[in-house]
TrEMBL record:
Originating organism: Peterkaempfera bronchialis
GO BP annotations listed: DNA biosynthetic process
Protein name: Vitamin B12-dependent ribonucleotide reductase
Record-listed E.C. numbers: 1.17.4.1
SUPFAM superfamilies cross-referenced by the UniProt entry: PFL-like glycyl radical enzymes
């Protein structure tokens, strides 16, 4: 990298307007180098290699995506290569038009940005434009930052040049507007993005129409929009659409809005108990309403003060504004907390706080957010995002390189603003608003990794100080560059009308920076750089105005976080200390996060101590009782999952520490344990308001019935266990003569885990005629389930002794769904929809001939791998394989039935659990059960990314970016 002074040019006073970027009002930017060398292209400074990308669904072995011979730098991980190749390369796979090199997609994007910058007068000379191109190329090539996904999808292609992932719509109190809402939302979903809107303008069900009848109310219209979203999905994919629905707390229908998902969750439970498939993505879940959106209530300071003081609060008519009903504020707040406790909805958005930081109040209020709740600005607007990889700015001495960070922020903000000059938008109204206000959303990822690497606990004063300093420097630098651009190509069109409030918000940011607490030698230099940036913002912005109405947000950084090889997404802490890593050429390994040794070194541990502690973590997955590690340092290694987890208030405190320097909001869900109370939810929502957070959602573990890997399901277990007995009665007439097993019989004892529930199965055989009885013991599951499983196994055993073929049981009981369900510790049966489903798949593999179970779709891991390699499940040489003998050739214990132990002990060296993501690794290593959905594309268990979920296997997200 070339060391330079600031890469910014202090722009002169702007001439008139130029908000659309067409006029060259000043001399143009002088761009200085950050990383590149004159005369050397960034591509020539890395080693390139060819790789084959083959992505499979491990559940059935099918190939989801395949492209061979793609070109990437050798430093890029397998995961990053897979995701960029499958998600961002354009052109039909297998055609000459298909992109095959990272160079192609970077050039496609960067050259478009450079050309637009030159066309709209951003650069002082062609030489400056070339430096801009090279620096942007270098930063993308080396994973220093990334644009959001729509840029990679669309820029430089023949399709519309949409660069935004976040949209806010508007709906008025008319049928025409409501139908427009359905249409606009559908078009956004079709393009793979998400949208949010506030329904509070729609009259409540307690008000009258002009015709004299009662209004339907917004909740009724939510049904139509929900059905539309569930049909269109997102981008034609199988995951649900991403949308946010907001209602003001003073709307007369607010209680009905709060209750919507609670009532539907009760419906899910009733239908599940009746035998319907109510898992996430199940066949019958579509009968449930309101499941395609996140819901949030907008609360004002007036309401929160009424809650604090125990006062009454008025609900107001939409047309006249008069109070038509008075409620107890505490009771309404309690109702919100109870609903969130029960089903995670609604979230909460603090309206007064949001609008206190609004730069453009003269043009309209901020009423809503995008689905992930980080973009908040005017109705009918959009925001394009980019995120910086914070670990790229950590020097070898574990200090943060504030100077380089600021230069990269200037580079990225310039590129983001240029993109609005050529961008297309899904509706004309959104295009007009975005071009007039030019909202940007620069942010960052890898904060959790950075804090750990520098020896800071996520929930600590030092950690919050460093995070706040970085956030302040980022947004201050972004607004400084925005002011400089205003001096060259003019301020945004809406600036003249909003100059005073925009300047007021800049002063609020600067004042917050001044009073922020400095903690140590790591954050103090960053605060100093941020202070200088904010001084420049006030000075230059006072002269030129600002090019952008908004500069920063903190997005989930799902797919682009994987593209940048980030250990943590957005503002999230580390998931766990042990990481799942895919290897070049196939396979995977488990490694202790690289941030752990850096953190230990920062804390003063010697090399030998570090090695011992890392070895302990590799074995146990946590730092508890690690040799030589001081207990006061445990908190540095607290994670989102595991033996030591960050408290819910720790997440809220981190959000409050960075919110004063984020133009928009923060995409984050505060996870709470299943044992959390409604009172604790109330405390989270109330303290977040006190601490100045703009928006918040909570998720209590296992509160969703439809979660596919929940370890709970008490109400379903006895019902499910009763069903097989009925099946035995139907088939008991196959052979009326019972053939009992001899006193001594060969047997197999198998330990298993399904969705976190442990059990043991003993299968005993006739000496010469296959399976004859099965005994099941459940560990730590209570007497009811244990008793039912005993009865079930006796019924099955008697049926087999009367001649019921094993394949009949297998065909009847495989694919039966009830809890416990989910991942198993059996590499041949990686996923089970219930304990019964697992048992009969395992029995089929152990006792049925290959042809019989293959017809039932049951194959071992080796057979599935053989299918991938050869296209056939069958062994290479059938003549050398005694298929019938395999059914009886498993290791056996010759024991009498009376001698069977009540609860057999698992083997000292259990079969290693096959995992496919970091979430599954943590579950397997620490015996946890993460409450997260499975990826619909590849079957991998997803992990949290802000308020969304991210699949580490294929890069799919449940959000809008």
């Amino acid at each position: 990298m070339t060391e330079t002074t600031s890469g910014s040019a202090r722009g002169s006073r702007s001439r008139n307007g130029g908000g659309k970027g067409g006029a060259k009002a000043g001399k143009g930017l002088r761009v200085e180098r950050i990383y590149t060398t004159p005369g050397v292209h960034p591509y020539d400074e890395v080693t390139w290699e060819r790789r084959d990308v083959v992505m499979t669904n491990w559940r059935d072995g099918s190939i989801n995506f395949e492209q061979r011979g793609v070109e990437f730098p050798d430093s890029w991980s397998v995961n990053a290569v897979n995701i960029v190749t499958s998600k961002y390369f354009r052109g039909a796979v297998g055609t000459p038009q298909r992109e095959w090199s990272l160079k192609q997609i970077i050039d496609r994007v960067v050259k478009t940005y450079r050309a637009a910058g030159e066309d709209h007068g951003y650069f002082a000379s062609p030489a400056d434009a070339e430096i801009f191109e090279h620096e942007l190329t270098y930063a993308l090539l080396h994973q220093v930052f990334s644009f959001n996904s729509p840029v990679w999808f669309n820029v430089g292609t023949a399709q519309p040049q949409q660069v935004s992932a976040c949209f806010i719509l508007a709906v008025d109190d008319s049928m025409e507007s409501i139908l427009d809402w359905y249409k606009e939302e559908g078009m956004i979903f079709k393009g793979g993005s998400g949208a949010g809107l506030n329904l509070s303008r729609i009259r409540s069900s307690k008000e009258l129409l002009t015709s004299g009848g009662n209004a339907s109310g917004p909740v009724s219209f939510m049904r139509g929009a929900d059905a539309s979203a569930g049909t269109i999905k997102s981008g034609g994919a199988t995951r649900r659409a991403a949308k946010m629905v907001v209602l003001d707390v003073d709307h007369p229908d607010v209680e009905a809005f709060i209750d919507t998902k609670v009532k539907e969750e009760e419906k899910i439970r009733a239908l599940r108990d009746a035998g319907f498939d109510m898992d996430l993505g199940g066949d019958d879940i579509t009968s449930v309403q309101y499941q395609n959106a996140n819901n949030s209530v907008r609360v004002s300071d007036e309401f929160m003060k009424a809650v604090e003081q125990g006062d009454a609060f008025g609900l107001r008519a939409r047309l006249t504004g008069e109070v038509i009903e008075t409620v107890d504020a505490k009771q309404l707040f309690r109702k919100m907390a109870e609903a969130a406790w029960a089903c995670a909805d609604p979230g909460i958005q603090y309206d007064s706080t949001i609008n206190h930081w609004h730069t453009c109040p003269e043009s309209g209020r901020i009423n809503a957010s995008n689905p992930c709740s980080e973009y908040m600005h005017l109705d009918n607007s959009s925001c394009n995002l980019a995120s910086l990889n914070l670990m790229k700015f950590l020097r070898p001495d574990d200090t943060f390189d504030a100077a380089t960070f600021a230069k990269v922020v200037e580079l990225v903000i310039t590129a983001m603003d240029i993109s609005i000059c050529f961008a297309d938008f899904p509706t004309e109204k959104i295009g007009e608003t975005t071009r007039a206000f030019r909202q940007l959303g620069i942010g960052y990822a890898n904060l959790g990794a950075l804090l750990m690497a520098t020896g800071h606990a996520y929930d600590s004063e030092g950690g919050r100080a460093l995070a706040g300093a970085i956030s302040s420097l980022m947004t201050g630098t972004a607004y400084r560059r925005s002011a400089e651009l205003a001096g060259i190509v003019g301020p945004y069109d809406g600036y003249a009308r909003n100059a005073e409030p925009h300047q007021r918000v800049m002063r609020q940011h600067a004042e917050a920076n001044t009073v922020a607490r400095r903690m140590d030698d790591l954050d103090s230099p960053v605060w100093a750089a941020a202070t200088e940036a904010w001084q420049d913002v006030l000075r230059i912005g006072g002269e030129n105005g600002f090019r952008n109405a908004q500069a920063s947000v903190l997005a989930p950084t799902g797919t682009i976080g994987l593209m940048m090889d980030c250990d943590t997404t957005g503002v999230e802490p580390d998931l766990a200390l042990v990481k799942f890593k895919k290897l070049v050429g196939g396979g995977s390994m488990q490694i202790v996060n690289n941030t752990v040794p850096r953190a230990l070194g920062r804390l003063g541990y010697h090399e030998e101590q570090v090695e011992a502690i890392v070895a302990h973590i590799a074995e146990h997955g946590n730092v508890l009782d690690a040799p030589g590690l001081k207990p006061e340092h445990y908190e540095v290694f607290d994670c989102a999952m595991g033996e030591r987890t960050i408290s819910p208030m720790g997440h809220v405190r981190m959000m409050s520490a960075i919110q004063p320097w984020i133009s928009g909001a923060i995409s984050k869900t505060v996870n709470m344990p299943e044992s959390a109370t409604v009172e604790e939810v109330e405390e989270i929502y109330f303290e977040a308001w006190k601490l100045g957070v703009k928006a918040l959602a909570i998720y209590r573990d296992n509160c969703k019935v439809g979660q596919p890997l929940s370890a709970k399901g008490k109400s379903t277990e006895p019902k499910a266990a009763e069903q097989p007995a009925a099946a035995v009665e139907k088939v008991v007439e196959y052979r009326p003569v019972r053939k009992r097993l001899p006193k001594g019989r060969p047997g197999i004892t198998t330990s298993f885990t399904v969705g976190g529930a442990e059990g043991y199965m003993t299968a005993n055989s006739y000496p010469d005629d296959g399976l004859g009885e099965v005994f099941l013991k459940m560990s730590k599951q209570g007497s009811t389930l244990a008793g039912m499983m005993d009865a079930f196994s006796i019924a099955v055993s008697v049926g087999m002794q009367y001649g019921v073929p094993l394949e009949t049981y297998v065909s009847k009981f495989t694919n039966m769904r009830f809890e416990p369900a989910g991942l198993t510790d059996d590499p041949d049966v990686r996923m089970a929809q219930s304990i019964v489903d697992y048992i009969f798949r395992r029995l089929a593999l152990d006792f049925l001939p290959f042809e019989t179970r293959s017809a039932l779709g049951i194959h071992s891991a080796d057979e599935r791998q053989r299918h991938l390699e050869t296209g056939s499940y069958e062994p290479a040489d059938d003549e050398d394989l005694d298929v019938e003998g395999l059914a009886q050739s498993a290791p056996r214990e010759h024991t009498r039935l009376a001698e069977l132990p009540a609860a057999p002990q698992p083997a000292a060296q259990p079969t290693p659990v096959e995992v496919h993501s970091s979430t599954e690794l943590v579950e397997a290593q620490q015996g946890l059960n993460a409450d997260a959905p499975l990826c619909f594309s590849c079957g991998t268990k997803m992990r949290r990314a802000g308020s969304c979920y991210l699949c580490e296997g294929c890069g799919s997200t449940s959000g809008c970016s």
